Amino acid sequence: MTRDLFSREISELQDEVLILGSMAEKAILDSMEALRDGDIRWSQKLVEDDQRINAKRFEIEERCIFVIASQQPMATDLRALVSMLFIITDLERIADHAEGIARINVMLGDEPLPRRLGYIPSMADRSVAMLRDSLKAYIEQDTALARQICEADDEVDRLHDRVYEDSTAAMIADPRTIQRNTYMLWTSHNLERIADRCTNICERVIYLVTGNMEEINVSKY
Amino acid sequence: MPDTHVESGTAAASAIGVHIVRTEEEAAASAAPAQRVAIRAENVEAWYGPKLAVAGVNMEIRANSVTALIGPSGCGKSTLIRTFNRMHEFAPAARVGGAVFLDGENIYERGIDPARVRQRVGMVFQKPNPFPTMSIAENVAAGLRFLGVRSKSEINDRVERALKVSALWEEVKNDLKKPGMALSGGQQQRLCIARAIAVEPEVVLMDEPCSALDPIATLKIEDLMRELAVQYTIVVVTHNMQQAARVSDRTAFMLAGEDHVGRLVEYRSTEELFTRPQDKRTEDYITGRFG
Description:
The structure holds two protein chains of two kinds.
Chain A: H1 4-37, H2 40-71, H3 75-108, H4 120-140, H5 143-173, H6 178-210
Chain B: E1 7-8, H1 11-15, E2 19-20, H2 24-31, E3 37-48, E4 51-62, E5 66-70, H3 77-83, E6 94-102, E7 105-106, H4 114-120, E8 121-124, H5 136-146, H6 152-165, H7 169-172, H8 185-198, E9 203-207, H9 215-228, E10 233-237, H10 241-247, E11 250-256, E12 262-269, H11 270-275, H12 280-286
Parallel strand pairs in B: 5-10, 5-11, 8-9, 9-10
Antiparallel strand pairs in B: 1-2, 3-4, 3-6, 6-7, 11-12
Helix pairs in contact in B: 5-6, 5-8, 6-8, 8-9
């Protein structure tokens, strides 16, 4: 085996992708906890912390670009680096959706607790599980798992439908709740988009392993 | 039923009254003529005396395209392309087995004139090799004179055309009488390309044509290859994989086994070969993990 340094660089970059993934996962979990607890200060901090995630993404992107320029990768190596560039974009956008949830909490302000979140925590749990699994599929290059995760997106879409139905019913029943229910819809939308981004990661896993670009799950949203 | 453009599908479909409606793209794709094959190698083997250097090569080279041959040193790339214009037999005790069809005609058939084959299949070498005692114009005209063209105006016209096609005319049009050796390395190589195409070949073989050139001269030759492919069929041997990826439509990967005999491992579209090769040996070679 030759090109040890190059192989090591790719391996280190994969570790960096996992670090970015864990930062995105933590952003979702924290933003949901802060939303549940009505902790506005924490949410404000989470909004600021998103900059660190963006910086991490650019750091990985720059390293990938330099490796492409200096090593001129082909075949699996090329697919590994191209997949990385797409995956880090999706991870960064997932963190942006978590930041979106933190901003909603700030906008909700001092709305009295406990928060009635309906199906939203369930959506968050499923989205986080999809994120973890998609990164597992990426590291283990497991296309079967990648396809399975994409099926889980349908469940998140169904939960989003339920949130939509509940929110609109509540708004019709009591127009004073229009603003809060609109915020709940936005929160639900952010989680639905996070799940979609996970399916994008899975599509990249399939490309990395097979070289085929496939759209494996078209979200209804 | 609206008057839709329908086309009878398979016989079975027609028999049960089913018509297959085709999209415009599908109709266009099926209407496009299959690309002509310029060279077909059938079980080609090349020998140097008792030593088998290349074996079992079956491949079709499409006309008006650039085909790249890649592979490690000693895998038989140069030997293989020399079988495409009967230059292999210049080596002492060299012989070729199998068949090479040029536009459907086996060039190894008894009675075929090797000189005529080499006129139809030109060659450009690794190191630019203008005839040292000849001027720029004389270099390009050399092949024409060899073929018996005597008319001065015809020679002048064809020299100008070849130099224009080789993207050299603008640089040398006022210096046609200067020695070919006075040109830069990149210009000399384009002069050699002009010399090869002046006799209007069907195929131009290029054996590592840029390996002695600087990056700028290399890129000029690469651009030229793409332009030449409109009119000619180009086969290029290169050690530079990025060059193969940049210039060729199809790429063939060759490798010598433990028996030191070169064989064709994989041959497919350049895009596929460099992004998703099917053979592990190709993958290992192009990712630099060979050996």
